[in-house]
Amino acid sequence: MHLTHSSAQSLQGRGTLGRMAAVERNINVHRTVSPADALQRLIDGNRSYAADVAPEAMHAHAVKRRHLIAEQRPFATVLGCSDSRVPIEIVFNQSLGDLFVIRVAGNILNDHVVGSVEYAIETFGCSLVMVLGHSNCGAVTAAVDAVVNRRTAASRIATIIDAIRPNVERVQGRDDLLEAAIEENVRSVTAALQQAQPIVTAARAEGRLAVVGAEYHLSTGIVSTLCGDLVD
Q1: What sign results for the dihedral spanned by CA atoms 142, 143, 144, 147?
Q2: Is the model's pLDDT at 5 over the cut of 50?
Q3: CA-based end-to-end distance of the chain
């Protein structure tokens, strides 16, 4: 069979990707961070951030970047909102290569998000998945407005609002509807992610993964856990 130059390049690229994947799978063998330790590391980092205390590692990105060229070893996955006021690594005082971050408006769930979570679990051995909502979330605010005022969003923005809408409707009538909806959205996404088959459910059953829901408070900088594994 004759290969064109472009076909040969394509096969070579796939071979490179395969080798990279093999290296990343080998990383998984040496993972030792427990789900509880991973959660505590995030909480401790957030408390340092809220107290305006930055570890020395945060000032050494240039050095760490060179060490991370060949591989990455994130200890946790965070599904957060796209809001520019909630930069995940900064909120948790973590450095390059520490977190596998997935961001989408309203921290909603879809097949692409679940696939990304599964990739982090299988490839890097991440022992914690955190669903992170935040106060004053614009996506949830839009969903609340759509429910209360019966508005219809334009274009594909509607798909985000439609994903959040049922969570708003479940708490309709609460005094602080926005905050209640933000929390309910986190709880709903966390519960759905806990039941994502087959990788998430298997990892949880084996005790090598915990899924938790939390909220970041813009006014204080504090992250508070709401629901899920490891949360009383």
Answers
A1: positive
A2: no
A3: 62
